[in-house]
Amino acid sequence: MRDVAIIGIGQTKVGEHWEKGLRHLALEAIQAALRDAGTERVDALYVGNMLSGELTGQEHLGALVADFAGMRGVEAVKVEAACGSGAAALRLGYVAVAGGLANVVLVVGVEKMTDALGPEATTALAMAADADYEAGQGLSFVAINALLMRRYMYEYGYKKEDFAPFTINAHANAMNNPYAMFHTRVTADSYAQAKMIADPVNLLDSSPVADGAAAVVLAPATWARRFRGTPVRIAASAVGTDAVALHDRRNPLVMEGATLSTQRAYQQAQAGPEAIQVFELHDAFSIMAALSLEAAGFAAPGQGVRLALDGEITLQGRIPIATMGGLKARGHPVGATGVYQVVELVQQLRGEAGANQVPNARLGMAQNIGGSGATVITHILERMD
Amino acid sequence: MASVPSRNWRLQAQRYRLVGERCERCGTFIFPPRDVCPECEAPAKTPFAFSGRGEVYSYSTLYNPPAGFERTAPYTVALVRLEEGPLVTAQLTDVEPEKVAIGMPVEMVTRRIREDGEDGAIVYGYKFRPARTG
């Protein structure tokens, strides 16, 4: 196996891009990443996407995006793992380069969600859950997270407002990210007054439906210096899975897939949670942020919310999360999200995160989750100098 | 996703009578049915009809329903811990949302789950209501 480096990054602003289609969004991120790397030729393209068929009537994104980006003929496929599709595409790109089957690989995550109406998007997102036994009973994806949040509050004795620090932190960090969807501060008051979507999950606990695309270019680490971008090494790439339906889990409040994925990643990187300086986690809902912190070993079971209440998740805290806004405030174009997380982590490790720079960041982790914990893909990245 | 007749037909034993399985090797009660025991990986082919009695493990009231469920919104959904062990995901019925609590005893009833418009299929299946029997 070869060491793999990320040699270029690119992203579009996340938001409602009524003027741009799926292929245009993908192209914009791809061109930015290739420019950053200083290369034009790639051996393969992996496209992470969840809902293009359901929401835009377009599948077959591998060939479509390759052709539209001027790479007709290149090996190209779409990769799907619900909301974990972006990191799943990166994982396959990593496997190709690490295994010596390709040298320069482009990974793009893209999602176009705002062409659909609200109920259509709600129905489409529920495809991440069990169609026969969850969505078929009338549950939205928000409702599934609400079931988790309610039980968590009951078992550990938290109040609704105790979850506010996750939203406040994400929105504060997004203020300095020009690519983020939201540039509005959230206070404890505005969190308390936010509209309820599926009790106890309110609008500010939830990540927004959005359009966006992000891309990275991979190459063998030994080649990295030939390219323009400051290289960052992929120290770990790991996947763990669990039952798709909450009712099939041993304990719904323990994300066993996340524990497996993180442990495998720690083993590969030969590092534990104490060495991780930045954690771009999958805060699709406030409860997911809490459960992720626990599964990754930053907090004991039931203590994820306590960590946030103690201020330890901010840029000055012990483990900064959502440093560029996270899913909640940067936005959550589902199949693109996993690549956005990695792009932002590269910005931190290169020292290019501007006002949100975590001082001396050398080792960081990104974790992308499909469904409510069924596919969990973890990458640990390390500065190369 | 529209409700397809063959799919509704395929799932009727589970939906109407809460039929799952019991693993013959390790005794685990399984719902929904899955053909391979999640605990011991033995083939799980022995049908088992659950009593339908259980208690609320968690719940939520939905204000933004998915397509096909708009007519009954807002409605309350729950994870129910069946007395035999498994959790099941379902809607609650015959109860005001503010009366629902974790630990509340409930029982299974057959009700209308979704409708696909004026001329579309009506799908029936299990919901849970506050327990009336002791």
Report on this model:
The complex is a heterodimer of chains A (385) and B (134). With 385 residues, chain A is α/β, with parallel strands linked by helices. Chain A has two domains: 4-117 and 209-232, Peroxisomal Thiolase, Chain A, domain 1; 140-207 and 234-383, 3-Layer(aba) Sandwich (Peroxisomal Thiolase, Chain A, domain 1). Chain A is built from 13 helices and eleven strands. In chain A, helix 4 packs across helix 13. The radius of gyration of chain A is 19 Å and the shape is globular. Chain B has two helices and eight strands. Chain B has one domain (5-130). Chain B has a five-stranded antiparallel beta sheet with strand order 6-5-4-7-8. Chain B has a three-stranded antiparallel beta sheet with strand order 2-1-3. In chain B, strand 7 (105-115) and strand 8 form a beta hairpin. The mean pLDDT of chain B is 91. The chains are: A alpha/beta (385), B mainly beta (134). The A-B interface holds A 118-120, 122-123, 126-127, 130-140, 142-143, 146-148, 150-151, 154, 196-201, 243, 245-248, 252 and B 1, 7, 11, 32, 38, 57-70, 72, 75, 77-79, 86-91, 97, 102, 113-114, 125.
